[in-house]
Amino acid sequence: MPEQAYQRGLMWLRNDLRIADNTALYRAGKACNAVAAIYIACPQTWASHGDGDRVVAMRLRSLRQLQVALAKKHIPLFFLELAEFTDVPAALAQIVEKLQVGALFANAEYPVNELHRDQAVRRRLKQLGVPVEYATDRTLIPPGSLTTGSGGGFKVFTPFKRAFIARHDNSGDAFAPLPSLRTRHPDCAEVWPEWIAVAGSNNLVRTIPETVGDYGVAPGGHNRVLDWPVGEAAGTRALKAFAELVDDYDRWRDFPAQKNTSRLSPYLNCGAVSVRQCVAMAVAENGGRWAGPSEGATTWLSELLWREFYQHLVVNFPRVCRNKPFKPETENVPWSNREEDFERWCEGKTGVPIVDAAMRQLNQTGWMHNRLRMVVASFLTKNLLTDWRKGERYFMQQLVDADFAANNGGWQWAASTGTDAAPYFRVFNPYSQSRRFDPEGAFIRRYLPELASLPSKEIHCPAVQPASGQSPSGDLFSPVDYPAPICDVTDSRKRAIEVFASLKS
Ligand SMILES: Cc1cc2nc3c(=O)[nH]c(=O)nc-3n(C[C@H](O)[C@H](O)[C@H](O)COP(=O)(O)OP(=O)(O)OC[C@H]3O[C@@H](n4cnc5c(N)ncnc54)[C@H](O)[C@@H]3O)c2cc1C
């Protein structure tokens, strides 16, 4: 698009809530004289996607900070609440007409409903002669653009990663963040009204609400989202802080008691930080390379490629967006789906300390360490033989970093219904994981205060302690208010393997 091609342009913000290195915003700034931004909340669609209070609060609060920062660039931010994605094309058509907008800019999103929404918007605005430009920004390269030798999408992570790195000659140069967005002349802010009426919905306004739809108003709604400082500045600070730790990432990333991972996922998900900014930090530590001298940076870059891989997967294999397993044969797993098991898992009352501590971390903070996400997902789907979709949905509702692609990918990986080589007979033993990655029980103690007094040796698998304070042999010990394990991990592992093996035959 030529520079200053339009008098007025509209930037449609979604999960890209930042100014720096925002591709669509940058292009809007180049192509238009006056730029306004819009955010459209669709709480009914969000609820149908399973989005929870925390992730929505993260969006709304980040948006408020972004509004202030954009105003300093003389770019007003408008807000509109609609019920569903399907309401968006008609509303945007009215808005671009009333605001006399020459072009609409947005960063592409990839799950099926988002793609359909965006195609419908493009068709509708085309009728008005208003072009819509969707940019690649959430991913490093456009999903679908990296293919196997036979032209299909990659189904396994390692070959995907190898092909990605080879395509870029092991260099991070292609992903340098964009130059800063130019501040517009103050007069450019004057051309926009304070609000406009939009038929069939609320008005388009400049106030970002605390709550939308039923979000944030339900009794018992979470307020612990404040554990996460929100906004672009907070995301940038977190990235800078992690740059000091990245060298050691490979050594410590699996130990949940320590804060050795970046904890950038909530910022990457709402877009307060861009994936290119993350890559730029890590390749700089790594001598400009993807795979290079720093083991820590190389391993972390590989995690960013897991993120990329799952984003590509939803485009290459959209059936995963339709509640379907990636491996069709696993549709027939005879899940036991015992409601009581699921409830105890959700509440962190399974009697398996590492699982319970992890679930309480999730319930209390909205975040869970990656190693523990794998452990609890394996425990639910294999040991408790509960449909992965129940766990996937619970995570979506609780996580402050809830992201469809990463969450669905992670759950299907753990349940052996998904991509990659996680063979069905690999079932995490929660007790060995606990002894290996939380050797002193520091993480367990933090989230299960009822076990805090136990010695490190016992904390991973405490002897069942009857309320009377007497063991079955009659010895006295202080009673601990903690349930007996929900299942025998050896027997339940065997059962899961038999079930999956029978699908094969
Ligand atoms: C069952 C399950 C569910 C998950 N659900 C989500 C989710 O809803 N949202 C989410 O962002 N991540 C999810 N993950 C991936 C991973 O657990 C988190 O991204 C990670 O724990 C976030 O912590 P961090 O930012 O400190 O990660 P770091 O270790 O610092 O990694 C940096 C970034 O790389 C990306 N990343 C790292 N590991 C993975 C991975 N395995 N898959 C995809 N991306 C990855 C994330 O964007 C992360 O922020 C899930 C994993 C599992 C096993």
Question: How would you describe the overall organization of this protein?
Answer:
45% of the residues lie in helices and 6% in strands. It is built from 21 helices and five strands. The chain has a five-stranded parallel β-sheet. By secondary structure, it is α/β, with parallel strands linked by helices. Helix 4 runs parallel beside helix 5. It is globular, with a radius of gyration of 24 Å. It binds flavin-adenine dinucleotide (FAD). The site of flavin-adenine dinucleotide has 28 residues, from helix 10, helix 12, helix 15 and helix 17.
Over the alpha carbons, how many angstroms does the gyration radius reach? 24 Å
Query: How is the CATH topology of the domain at 329-504 named?
Result: DNA Cyclobutane Dipyrimidine Photolyase, subunit A, domain 3
Bound molecule kinds, no repeats = flavin-adenine dinucleotide
**Which structural class is indicated by helix and strand composition?**
alpha/beta
Shape: globular
Annotated CATH homologous superfamily of the domain at 329-504: DNA Cyclobutane Dipyrimidine Photolyase, subunit A, domain 3
**Percentage of residues in helical conformation:** 40-55%
Strand content: 5-15%
Q: Architecture of the domain at 329-504, according to CATH?
A: Orthogonal Bundle
Tell me the strand order in the biggest sheet.
3-2-1-4-5
The H/E string reads EHEHHEHEHEHHHHHHHHHHHHHHHH
> What's the CATH class of the domain at 329-504, please?
Mainly Alpha
Parts with pLDDT < 50 across at least 5 consecutive residues: 471-478
Number of helices: 21
Distance between the termini: 56 Å
Mean pLDDT: 93
* Strand segment count: 5
Sheet with the most strands?
Answer: 5 strands, parallel
